Amino acid sequence: MFKKALFSAALISFASASTVLHAQEAKPYLFVSGGQSDADVPKSDLDNFWGVGPGISSSLDTEDTAWKIGAGLKLNQYVAFEAEYIDLGEAAYSATDGIDIARTTLATKGYGLNTVITMPLDRFSLSAKAGYHRLETEADFSFSGFDVMSESVEEWVLSWGLGAGFNLTEHFMVVAEFERYRDVADEYDVDLMSAGLRYNF
Description:
Blueprint: H1 2-16, E1 27-39, H2 43-50, E2 57-61, E3 63-74, E4 79-96, E5 101-121, E6 124-143, E7 146-167, E8 172-184, E9 188-200
Antiparallel strand pairs: 1-3, 1-9, 2-4, 3-4, 4-5, 5-6, 6-7, 7-8, 8-9
Domain Outer membrane protein beta-barrel: 7-201
Keywords: Signal
Organism: marine sediment metagenome
């Protein structure tokens, strides 16, 4: 209930910000970024799920390609709000006894809002953000090529991030960011390192 109320308040704040567009000299922008995610998935939990014991080897690849796209409203040179869709890629686990192979994939994507605080430094800028996202994680389990089970978990998660930007022109900016999404699927954190382009109207 608290999380839903917090998201509603953030959504109302984001929407009402447009009413002060002229008074605060607010400016909208669009952005797209791509990079690499790293999920802090506990390998021991997957080993236990599949009953990995002596003679069985297992591995876990927690890194994958990730991307995001969204729009923001910059109220002034210091404060902005963002709405975004994000795909955090997937973590892939496998275990084998030399004949049969057990596999698990955990893919996460969703949407959310960020509040961004920026420190302008001429053509450069530094930023910090805090966000609230609705993320869905699809978990698929297979054994020797046959599907065993699948499930989907949706959670509201908190996030934070740090970034830097460089103004190429009046309208285009290159951005680089580090972000952490907390308690994804109520189990683990996912980090995202990304770089992208922002268009300021």
